[in-house]
Amino acid sequence: MIVLRSERTIKKTGAGSTESRYYLSSALPQQYQPEQWLGLIRGHWGGVEIRNHWRRDVLMGEDRSRSRNPNLLANLALIRSALLPILAEHLEEQSLPEFRENLGARPGRCLALLANL
């Protein structure tokens, strides 16, 4: 288990706080120096940003949602999560604009793709 403690200070108020984050690893603690552990953790979350959030936001417009209905947002997030592997599989065959256009013109195909998961 790796414990990462970060301290921050709010510039306007000068108030400080310390947060602890916990990570599990199969590597032995002495396998890496603290700076290396920090690099591994940052690299992991950077990859998550690229593999997941960027695709959800840029390709699917998730952050542009204006709804505040938590049920709607949760359902749309589930659908987007289901679409990520489909998107990765089909983008090799055609460009993203072509893929979007084809699916937008045929909503039944969208449902068929989701039903085959």
Compact summary:
With 117 residues, this protein is an alpha+beta fold. The protein has helices at residues 34-59, 70-90, 96-105, 107-115, and strands spanning 2-9, 16-23.
Walk me through this protein's architecture.
With 117 residues, this protein is of the alpha+beta class. The chain is built from 4 helices and 2 strands, in the order ββαααα. It has helices at residues 34-59, 70-90, 96-105, 107-115; strands spanning 2-9, 16-23. β1 (2-9) and β2 form a beta hairpin. The two termini are 35 Å apart. The mean pLDDT is 84.
Q: Secondary-structure map with pairings?
A:
Elements: E1 2-9, E2 16-23, H1 34-59, H2 70-90, H3 96-105, H4 107-115
Antiparallel strand pairs: 1-2
Task: Let me know the number of strands.
Answer: 2
Total DSSP helices:
4
Major sheet size, sense and barrel closure: 2 strands, antiparallel
Dominant shape: elongated
How confident overall, as mean pLDDT?
Answer: 84
| Oligomeric state | single chain
Structural class: alpha+beta
Low-confidence stretches: none
Radius of gyration from CA coordinates: 20 Å
**Beta-strand percent range:** 5-15%
Q: Order the strands across the largest sheet as they lie in space.
A: 1-2
Task: Name the descriptors.
117 residues; two-stranded antiparallel ribbon; elongated
